[in-house]
Each structure stands twice: as structure tokens, then as C-alpha cells.
Amino acid sequence: MIFNRLFVATTVAVSVATPLAAISFAREPVPVVSKTGAVVEIMPGAFNFPVPGEFLSDGRPANAPVVEQLIARPISMMKYQVSQAEYQRCVDAGACKAADATISADADIRPITGVNYLDAQAYAAWYSGETGEHWRLPSDAEWAYAAAERFVGESYSAIASDPDNPAVAWIRRYEEEAALSRAPDPVAHPLGHFGPNTRGIHDLGGNVWEWTSTCYQRTTLDQESGEAAHRIENCRVHIAEGRHRAYMSDFVRDGVSGGCAVGRPPDNLGFRLVREARRSLPQRLLDGLWGAIFSGPVS
Fold it and tell me: Which of 95, 173, 197, 209 has its CB 3.0 to 4.6 Å from that of 240, i.e. a possible disulfide?
């Protein structure tokens, strides 16, 4: 099924190559006052995505469904996390609350940490006003797609070898967490310390977990079909992505002190933004084309 979709995508791309070549995804440049302003353009596509949240089947934990996730539009994502200096500008303007973390002497090259989901949202609103563009947090799917090979997702599997034996489940989870064990790394390293991924975005999966706009969900799966039978969404808890996926209450600024992360909690909480572009008619038509080609769960 996936092969057929890719074949169709290739055929369509070739047949409309000439008109699509005239479509530009270029944006008006945002004034770059620090590394925060640098943006990486990521073209649309589809990928296998483990859905975030908690899943239950017959009252027992179940592994998250894996879906073929469509990213229909280009993603304009900050190359680096928002810096301490840039966040402090928002604080000085009275639009953001001061972060819990101490501002470094080299604040222009250090990522902001000690901020919660609400702080990130406030900064996005302020930065949008400053640049005249619409900036927002990425969704969890957008973050995962941008992270590419650095995306980890959940740090453990929900299903044990013997679901009827709680001891087996506990041992399996312990072994998986032990395999991912690492020493705490609480000091935020300079921007670029962890280097770029294959998409050219720096520090994904480093020691600063990044807030996303995706809410926590608890889903009960139908035993026969495996489809969602019942879903509860809690938007007072959002997903932070990093070395593993974490579920954090919106007001939490220190991952060690609270949240729903399995295994080691996030060393730091920070963020980066994506820029929404004004979509022209040809671009909206192209979005629809991608949507027609890629859809549905992985079989």
C-alpha cells in the first residue's frame, strides 16, 4: 500500500514538474538578531509515527498505534532553540515571565531553560508581533518529522511478553529504562553543542527537551479492530520531546520536579518555534495533492 502511494507520488511529481517548478516556498526573511532567527525549511512528506499518549486495550497498557503521518506543508523551523538573550527581550518587554534558570553571561548562545508551556506560548505571541510573522510551537508530529533520525518517542514499550504477569511487565520496563540510563546533564550547553541532524536542525535530542503544542491523550482501543474506541484529551498536559517523549503539566518549568515522563525526567525544558507562512493558491492546491496521496494507518 505504501509502495503504491509512493509510486503515485513519483508519477504525479514527474507529470507536473514544470508547473510545480514555478511554485516557490520562499518566505520573507525574518531579521536575524541572534541564532534564534535562523530557520531551516523542511519539505512535506510522510513517515511512520507512533501516536503519543497512553493506550489501553482490555484494561491493559497497549503499545501506541503507528500511523503513516502526513506533513502536508513545508515546515519552517528554528535552526536552534530560543536563546536566553532572545527570551530575555520578551521579559524586558513585559510580555514574558522571567525564567527560573539563571541567565548566563553568554546568553546569546545559550538556550533558554526553566520555562513552561505557558511561557513558550507567551514568547511565540510576542515574537510574532515583533517579526510581523505568525510563530508557534510545533506539533508533536512536526517535531518528530523534523527530528528525523534523532526522534526517539516513548522510552519503553507498553506490552510485556506476558501481559497476564505483572512481574514480567515490571522487569521488562526496568530493563528498557536501564538500557537508556544516563547521567544527569543539567547545564544547558551552548547552541549547536549537539550538532545538526540530517535536516540541518541543531541540538534535537540534546539535554533540553522542547515543548510542543500537542495535548496528552488517553485512548481505549477496540480489542478487535485496534481502532480508538474512546479518547480523553487533557490539554493541561503537553508533550515535550527530547531524548525521549515526556508528558509535562503546563505549569512545570523543571522536568525533575514534575511531569509524567517515564524513566529519567527531562534535564531541562526549553523550546523552538515554527513559522506559519501565508499560503498562495498553488501552494494550497499542492497541500491537497499530498493529502490525497498519503493518508491512513500503516497496515
Answer: 209
Kindly state the helix (H) or strand (E) to which residue 39 belongs, with its residue range. strand 39-42
Task: Give the whole-angstrom CA distance, residue 193 versus residue 236.
Answer: 32
- Give every CB contact of residue 199 below 8 A, 6+ residues apart in sequence: 40, 42, 146, 148
Distance CA(196)–CA(198), nearest Å, equals: 7
The whole-number mean pLDDT for each consecutive block of 10 residues of the chain, a chain of 299 residues, reads: 38 33 33 66 95 85 88 96 97 98 94 98 98 97 96 66 53 53 80 96 96 94 78 93 92 79 78 85 61 46
Residues 42 and 75 sit within 8 Å (Cβ to Cβ): yes
Contact by Cβ (8 Å): 125, 222:
no
- Report which DSSP code applies to 274: E
Domain residue limits, the chain: 1-23+282-299, 30-279
The pLDDT assigned to 297 comes to: 46
φ/ψ (deg, to 5) at 140: -65, -40
